Amino acid sequence: MSNASTSPVRRLGNRGPVAITVGILVVLLVVFFAFASVYADILWYDQLGFLNVLTTQWFAAAGFFVAGFIAMAVPVWLSIEIAYRSRPVYARLNSQLDRYQDVIEPLRKLLTWGVPALLGVFAGLSTATRWPLAMLWFNGVPTGTVDPQFKMDISFYLFDLPFFRAVVSLFSAIVLLCGLAALITNYVYGSIAIVRRELRVAKAARIQLAITAAIYIALQGVSIWLDQYATLNNDTGLITGAGYTDVNATIPGLQILSLIALLVALLFIVTAFTGRWRLSLIGTAMLVIAGLVLTMGYPWVMQRFVVDPSERSLEAPYIARNIELTREAYGVADIDASPYNATTDATPGALRSDAETTASIRIIDPALVSASFAQLEQFKQYYAFPGELDVDRYTIDGKSQDSVVAVRELNQAGVGSNQSWYNNTLVYTHGYGLVAAYGTERSSDGQPVFLQAGIPSTGELGEFEPRIYFGENSPLYSIVGGTSSTKPVELDYPAASGENEQVYNTFAGDGGPKLENVFNRLVYALKFQSEEILLSDAVTNDSQIIYDRDPRERVQKVAPYLTLDSDPYPTVVDGRILWVIDGYTTSANYPYSKMESLSAAISDQPQPASAFVLDNVNYIRNSVKATVDAYDGSVTLYAWDEEDAVLKTWQKIYPSNIKPISEMSADLMSHVRYPTDLFKAQRSILGQYHVTDPGSFYSGDDAWVTPNDPTEASDATKYQSPYYLTMKVPGADAPAYSIYSTFIPKATGTSSRNVLTGYLVANSDAGAEAGKKSEEYGKLRLLTLPKVVTVPGPGQVQNNFNADPDVSKELNLLSQGSTNVLKGNLLTLPVGGGLLYVQPVYVQSTGNTSYPLLKKILVAFGDQIAFEDTLPEALDVLFGGNAGVDQPTNEGAQPPENDPAGGSGGSTANPELTKALQDAQKALTDREAARVSGDWAAYGAADAALTDALSRALSASGN
């Protein structure tokens, strides 16, 4: 019996050490996983040369966690300890309190230490996440500009005020919790008691509670004092900032209320030593009443009976403040606004003085030709181009040439059934080459004309490193590199000597942490949940693992204080392909500046205002230009706006991370541009703040808005995107690479008049001098259109195109059969004394492997339109047979050759493809002749022949 009875105990006893061992192993495993993640971050930042970013964040967060923990835990512990130690020893408690004590006493020490520690952890976590506030305050740099109300340097609002308010809020919470802890402890241990309906407070408890209340109310007084400065960011509905009522009622009321709070705090100090609560309680009641009167009642009365009857005149000075500081905060204060008395009559020779601009009109739409790039330049299914291409410019034969560009990135999904860990990680590791097409040219059959193309890459851009290891669509991670004795396994590009032969390469840069030992491999095997990293014999001590390969992601990790532009673009600079990313410093604390949701401002999709917007800003500067090398992923940051106080402050926090603009090469300088998102934010602001007269601003009679994209479907609403073009803007001395957008009147009813009211353009050419940007770069010009002349806006022009019977007839003919008509971007140019609209028209077969071909050009000037095969022809027709352009744009070139192993990127090297394209050209000619003669049977036969020829061309191209 004894053996039977003790065996379960023995078995349980045997399980104890096993359970403990398992528990320890689980804890160690969790700790190692956490350590592996941290160690991987260390390796990544260290390899990139930005380890101080990680350590600064860690040390700052750890330091502020400790500070927050101590700031909360120590006072709460002291409050409990003081209340306990000063308890009445022989107090007679009631039975209820006796029961409380019986429950609490065994746990007293645990609660005395545990409660403050728990609260301290919460406070520490809160302060740890807010370390940037303290660092900005400590390192803040003056702006040299003062606000118009308090005459404080703007840096006070950017750096000091947010920190002070956060500190007051934290200490208010600490004091409040101290008071609650003291109140509960004193009550449980009899220092506060209700005897025969009479509240009795022991002297020690009275002193403790009264002093705690005094400190709390004094802190509220400080908070109220700080609130007066916060009025300069209040949204009053009319403007952002303090208006007449704020300045003459709310701010004085807050100042008085703050002093009253300090007096009430003194009354509680008096109570602590006299024991008389009446004055302090009366003072507290008076503080509440004064708060209601001074911050709500009096301002309401002034607004209702003084301001509202004369609002326009009384608010005028404060509207002027709002206009001035909003324009300053968004960088549009120095905009060159001038009237542009646009004519709507297209007279012969009108474009003679704008021949340079006309010759630079981009007819290739980067949003439509991605399929063309793919069909002509993809070559293999494991390559891909982005859905929308970028616009850049290159100097070709001494002349700046606008170009549509894209990199040929890796698309592992195209590998199909051959996907495996080995192939995806070690073989298919990178894309290859940058492809660029002339923005102003097309081939005779409507294809883009490439200035850089092919595999290997050849063209006008010279020799450069073509491999794309870091791009917007790169794989999650790849393992690259190896010793010179290791046979290359990374697929470089398809060879020309045979269909199944490939060229292999070994990465030779410094692109990621090295897998030089078993421990590093184990760390990354855990990070990516892939045991092959640890076990594969293809991974050597010289192998590197590259990850976090998206250019924006890399820059964001090394510069977390920047807001990044949403549109990185690739460019060839100094023999390398670089991704260029614009970085912004932003703030939501600039006084008197209008608050905007940055995501809404830069979006082309109109969205209703959200009550939970987390990216509100009212100050923005393009402070940093960042580059990411597409080959080795190296990140370089350049201080573009060296006068920006916010950037200067962050540079003190992260010293040596940002290079001065003087270190930018001439080649890089020639490829930076005015950023799209900044331009959109400024465009959004200028819709209202182009008005500088307070009276007109108050009336809102001249508000503008960006027109909807007229090429979108009728059931879709999308703002027209800004466009990059090389042009000479009225008032400028010479043509320059620029970004522009247009304005129409803001709708006041159910619809808006789609007439042009403004034309905004920013000089986007920084010049080509090393370390020095052009004085004209970033210059904003706003052309205001006359109100007495109706200049058609984009919507009206598109409607005129669609409604014109001749145009409609030709478009219908083009879209018959198995083809669709695609309307390209509608460009607006201030030339010829008016506004010229240019729209390319593409034709695309409905087949699965089809791509758009540029066939026609629509142009408009005023109410007159033309629709021809080429831009020069269309301009001549539009301007009475002579547009005045002596140098017509270069169109109708033959399509370039297409050789995957070394051609320049077209389609005539393949005899079958050449024959198919020739047949397609003949079918197009026959179809046009049949249309003119009205022979619709012949037209149908030619259309069928065109479809057949295009199908054969696509088949012959190998796609």
UniProtKB/TrEMBL annotation:
Listed GO cellular component terms?
Answer: extracellular region; plasma membrane
Subcellular location per the Swiss-Prot or TrEMBL entry: Cell membrane
* Membrane spanning residue stretches: 18-38, 58-78, 110-128, 163-189, 209-226, 254-274, 281-301
**Which Pfam family, giving just one, matches this sequence?**
UPF0182
Database matches in InterPro entries: UPF0182
Keywords of the record, alphabetical order, are: Cell membrane, Membrane, Transmembrane, Transmembrane helix
Q: In what way does this protein cross or attach to the membrane?
A: Multi-pass membrane protein
Q: Does the keyword Transmembrane helix apply?
A: yes
Chief subcellular site?
membrane
Region: Disordered, residue numbers: 882-912
Q: Which family does it belong to?
A: Belongs to the UPF0182 family.
Q: What is this protein called?
A: UPF0182 protein AUMI_12950
Source species, please?
Answer: Aurantimicrobium minutum
Taxonomic classification: Bacteria, Bacillati, Actinomycetota, Actinomycetes, Micrococcales
